[in-house]
Write a structure and sequence with these properties.
The protein has 10 helices and no strands. The mean pLDDT is 87.
């Protein structure tokens, strides 16, 4: 991994983290195309820069994070399922993270779902985060567990989960953003701890530089992406993201079976 790789992956992360098209999936595929080997640091980097993107939520919605303890209790209820799944299945998840073919298949399947989700859940009754109860937050958290499979998209899973619980598109998207904060913070801490256990020297100079640059770029790009996404989503819905996923999924599968994309 070099500095150009870091910049490209960070930009991809910042753009895709909040779109229902899978940031992890895009980074896995981009890494494969750029020939970046899947060593321990690369895996750590791809998780840790997601925290940089997620912190943009805290900046843009900072007032929500100082509203009440009830807000945080909902996030706890929503993140519990992902914590359990992450702890129990981390080794299997790590294997999946190395497979562009898994990403391609999930992009394709998820794209088909997004073509119809606006029609399936078109009668929302919850338009604000404060109207979400703990049970609803937990159910959305169950949907988030699907995102351990690269290519599913944490954003897509939680937004669809929210809409299935009668949240409006905007409310579902914003709660998805909020839920990402503890989820990705926890994932980053866990990844750093696991890396520390297997490496006597935590990071060298270049690795520290790569992590800092990657997080800063992802943060700045995500700031721009969030508001654009919310505005577009309110007006147009998910179909364009569905078609994008389907096209990308088909192209990647074709490249895989013609030998142009390695597993």
């Amino acid at each position: 991994m070099n500095l150009i790789h870091v910049i490209i992956l960070a930009i991809i992360e910042g753009i895709t983290e909040f779109l229902p098209i899978s940031s992890t999936g895009h980074m896995v595929v981009a890494s494969a195309f750029m020939g970046i080997g899947k060593n321990d640091f690369v895996k750590l980097f791809e998780v840790c820069i997601q925290l940089g993107a997620i912190l943009s939520v805290v900046v843009l919605y900072y007032k929500r994070f100082f509203r009440s303890i009830d807000f945080y209790l909902k996030l706890v209820a929503g993140v519990i399922p992902a914590v359990i799944v992450g702890v129990l299945f981390k080794k299997k998840i790590d294997v999946l993270l190395e497979s562009p073919l898994v990403v391609a298949a999930m992009l394709l399947i998820g794209g088909v779902v997004l073509l119809f989700v606006d029609d399936w859940f078109n009668k929302p009754v919850v338009d604000k985060e404060k109207e979400i109860d703990y049970a609803t937050a937990f159910k959305i958290g169950l949907f988030q567990c699907l995102a351990v499979i690269p290519g599913v998209s944490r954003s897509a899973a939680t937004i669809v989960g929210g809409m299935s619980q009668k949240l409006s598109r905007k409310a579902a998207a914003e709660f998805s953003f909020f839920l990402a904060v503890p989820t990705m913070f926890g994932a980053t801490v866990k990844e750093l701890w696991d890396y520390h256990k297997h490496h006597a020297q935590m990071f060298d100079g270049d690795q520290i530089k790569f992590l800092l640059i990657g997080n800063v770029i992802a943060f700045i790009v995500a700031l721009l992406a969030i508001k654009t996404f919310i505005t577009y989503l309110e007006k147009h819905g998910f179909k364009v993201f569905g078609w994008y996923r389907i096209i990308v999924g088909i192209v990647l599968i074709a490249l895989y079976f013609t030998g142009h994309l390695s597993a």
